[in-house]
Records
---
Amino acid sequence: MKKLFLVLVGLLLIRACAHEQNDATGNLLPVPKSIQQGNGFFTVTKGTGLCISAPENDRNAVTRLLGAWEDMLSLTEKPADADCIAMEICEKVDGISSPEGYAIEVTEDGIKAKATSGAGLFYAAQTLLQLADGGNRIPVCSITDEPQFGYRGMMLDVSRHFFGKEFIKKQIDAIAHFKMNRLHLHLTDAAGWRIEIKKYPRLTDFAAWRKPAIWKDWWFGSREYVEKGSEGAYGGYYTQDDIREIVAYAAERYITIIPEIEMPAHSEEVLTAYPELSCTHEPYKQADFCIGNEKTYEFLENVLTEVMELFPSEYIHIGGDEAGKASWPHCPLCQKRMKEENLSDVNELQSYLIHRIEKFVNSKGRQIIGWDEILDGGLAPNATVMSWRGTEGGIAATESGHKAIMTPGGYCYLDSYQDAPHTQPMAFGPYMPLEKVYSYNPTDGLKEEQAKLIYGVQGNLWVEYIPTEELVEYMIYPRILAIAEIGWSNPAARDYSEFRQRAVKSVEWLKANGYNAFDLAKEFGQRKEALTPSEHLAKGKNVAYSANAPFNDRYNAGGETALVDGIHGGWTYLDEKWQGFIKGGIDITIDLGEEREISSVSADFMQMCIPDVWLPAKVTISLSSDSAEFRDIATIVHNVVRDEGLSFKNYGWNGKEKGRYVRYRAECGPQRGWLFTDEIIVK
């Protein structure tokens, strides 16, 4: 009897192990459209067959990707009934409308994957690798999956600091793993020209090199360029062979490289190397091309011709942002152009250049993308808008029937702090944690017709303050994973708490594969003051703002109740909890409703000099019983100095006074920039 019992127990254990429960979703990022989980696993063992029915290039791409199992897989011409991974490109796959979609069926006996294109089959293979989680067991499941958007991109600025081709290829591997399909390279800007153009050798012999190496030292210093090979020269560029290699490497991973050649602005390096293309014809004087000069178009068309020969992408990015336009109203050639073309202002003059360049690019069978400033003065007929100054540019583009790629700075700029600023390297922008990035929905609030014109979403990394490869990766990962899931997955399927768990695992994968990712598991988190509402005498009371010092509508934080709602701001003025004031300072009066004993009045301010946010130079706190006559109870003077990073300071008074009306005034220093405060606390 005892032996029989042991046999039965053994059989039950074998049966239980054979049908072991699995969690197929825990390793998948982005989350698939549909997944049904089963019990048990398929195990890749030595001799497991791999049959890929696809054109040679697609077959090679998938075989290369599954190289982790190279020692075990046996390539076969026909799929076997068992112990086989069968992958096939079909004319049609049930439940899939996107060419990048795929379907996977995993049983204990084998795997079947189908797609209508090589890209779809490649993404199916990425999903299998994620399911295996570095091992050789794939959980039993059924997956039907396809992306929400056709464009899922990352932009890397290689102008402010240059990063070599091997580093670019490394990032291509990572974003391909998470099913992203565009890499936008910001190749030209004031800090350096980064692509070889045979017709204009001074672009890489001179305009690609500078002193000093650190961008902020150069930008706030002499801003000079130096000859290639000179002592201390910092910079670099991609040769045309480098570009071909990068483009081919990306194509093997179904990623399109989109080049950006800036115009008409951000072109100091060009106009110093070739000053005849500027309005003054003097080096180191201009950032904007002379739009009235025919040589400008000769130059740009020659450059773009070489660029388009190297990059087969449908889109060529032409910048179009932040033109100063200062010289155009006084330049004889620009004024002549405006008169000849019947242009009413300099915005229309810029639009003239964009239209003309678009016509040239279209003649080569390509399309242009530009930052949302290309809307100013009239949008070119076939242009796609990349919306970065909020979402308004993208919305305006869709309203006029144009495609838009959404990359608003408030959600998609990865050069911002990703954790509590005091725990992080210096960053250019305010607090942008993974949760904030993940909260973005590119089609939120759009009509159905407009939503169809949202081509996709992109995360941008500008590198003014990011000089090393290690720091680039630290700022990209894991936040680009949120962009990947926004671009791929249905918003209804997204949940941040669940996503964060998968992102933590993905960080482990990134680190294991040699990436310097931010350790999400050790995230410090939000500013502690923002976590708990405050109770105080002024909460919910009436507030009067001086007509000479109104809050700015863009940063209203909820309007006239914002500074007495008990809610404190976090690490960034973009969280809609900090109220912003510009130039006029702050002058508000709070009515407590009756005379009260008052022991303290205080408010927090922040300083972040890069976006022109400053601490007050002077704060005056006053009390009154009748709102007519006020007596000052405190004057706080602060010497405002420029610093790096983000800082906070409380300006307050403690004592013993009586009053009904509390007046709080804050004055700007000589910088005359922004003041931000989140709550005026009265106790």
---
Amino acid sequence: MHKISSFFITISFLLVSLGVQSQSDNVVHAKAIATLINDSSYALKISLQIDKGWHVYGENPDGINAPLIKSKLESAKLLLDPKYSIAPIKQSDVLFTQALVFTSDFEVNQNLQITGFQPDSLKLMVVLNVAKADQFYALELPVTVALSKGTKVAGFNILLPASATTAPNDACGSAAVTTSNSSGWEVFLLGFLGGLIALITPCVFPMIPVTVSFFTKRSKTKKQGIVNGLLYGLSIFLVYVLASVPFHIVGNVQPEIFNSISTNPWLNIIFFIIFIVFSISFFGFFEISLPSGIANKADSKSGLGSIGGIFFMAITLAIVSFSCTGPILGTLLVGSLQGGAWALTQGMAGFGVALALPFTLFAIFPQWLQSLPKSGGWLDTVKKILAFLELALAFKFLSNADLVEHWGLLKREVFLGIWAVISIGLALYLLGILLLPHDVKGAKIAVTRKVLALGAFVFAGFLLVGIAPQNAKYINFLSGFPPPTHYSLFQHEKGKHGLQANVMNDYAQAVILSKQQNKPILIDFTGWACVNCRKMEENVWTDPAVMSYIQNNFILVSLYVDDKAMLPIDKRFTYTSKSGQAKDINSVGDLWATFQAENFSQVTQPLYVVMSPDEKLLSNPVGYTPNASEYLAWLQCSANKNK
């Protein structure tokens, strides 16, 4: 059996740290000046000051590059190679024996050409490698340079007057709106369900009797056994809850950081690859585990004093069971991100409670161990069923990236077809027709497997029937997982929900239309990768009464907060938030996410806001409202406030 040392959990934590600036940045300081050469070209001079004791690497044969200048502006082109005001010197180096380095302040010079519109300033990045003794950092130093021939970008008026975004005292809806993708208890229960699934995997289930027996034999009295069991259960719970703490630290960077992470196309592609690897592992082709050294270190600590030893036993359980719990935790991680750090903590708490419960109960009532089913082939079957589920989830992540970037790879019909094939494959496996590693040809198929196979065939049938646009209603129970109905091979008009022909994605245009028709504006803060947004569009907005009322009484504008399409260069700007944070507004999603956060203090989707033609809030915004009658009542009350 092959073993792969997995770094998947580490990746998750590293990815969310993208918004946290390294404390090592201050060892080199950069200033930039741009001198005009002609109407479209500038001579750049980047002055670098190096702190005492540090050195910057020049070009070295070990793959260490000299300082480089980079620009994210697609119309800006750096000409020729950079030139340095002084030559690097060769000196002994702890990491690379002999290396070419800059030990004193110097300048990097390079010419820059900009085609088309020129902003009045340009953000650059100086990429360099620094070291001091055995400390080594790869740095990216941001620097802004003024362009004398550039034009100042006016930008979009993101912040509405406070009086305009304050709802009247008798406003409809609740003043304290929670728009997270799931309520706290729902996320907790989803995590709890994930923990229950983890319990019946081959990595966890056999450990229950072994661990409990260890406690009962080690404890001198029944009371001590109960106390140790409770401490062990509490430790398991704490291990998973504490794993969410870094996300709270990251969450303080920007209010919409979790939405940015969860809808990042490249992150979703990484999760797609990870889940494909997980599913192949679950199929039995190889085994995934964390490096054995980590498990050995944790296990060695389990012999410490009572409380400390028990806690390290809980850490050991989390590590050695990772190959089975990792995919489930990964699903929980990605599914909770849009709800923020607390949603993730609630989900992890639910997972920890479910995982800790049997260990605690069996430690208190060890006689119950006799009623546990014996480990056997059924555990392998459970693991392979999970493999098919992981494979299906993998394509959901790929779909998220495809939707956000509008690649058109996984249109609704293609996605449903893939899921149907996976479901049929699951059915064939359960019937013993499709053999996977460690399966025995001709083995007796239990009744339970036959029933599950029938369910998989029925599910595949629903998916195949639902591929036809006119049959979409038959798979409404899946709303949010497949791409939206308008992202289809049969419809090519971007931005339409099928709700009405004049759905738009431009707030300014919606205001103009609202004044012309004297109708209030219904702002739909949504996202291409938002599950509950699809549920609202496909289950609530399609209700005849709701659909008719929106069409006749509102100007509907859908603002996608995760749209990665870049704004025209002359529309990009830097916005300073009410809290004093500077943020670059470069994409459509940047614009609408900031517009939502600054004016309505909400960063999750969906969020529905009703504004009058003169841009005043008519009612309290509402979030995910799956009850069509309740949502219609809010719409009616909001529209009446405009009269």
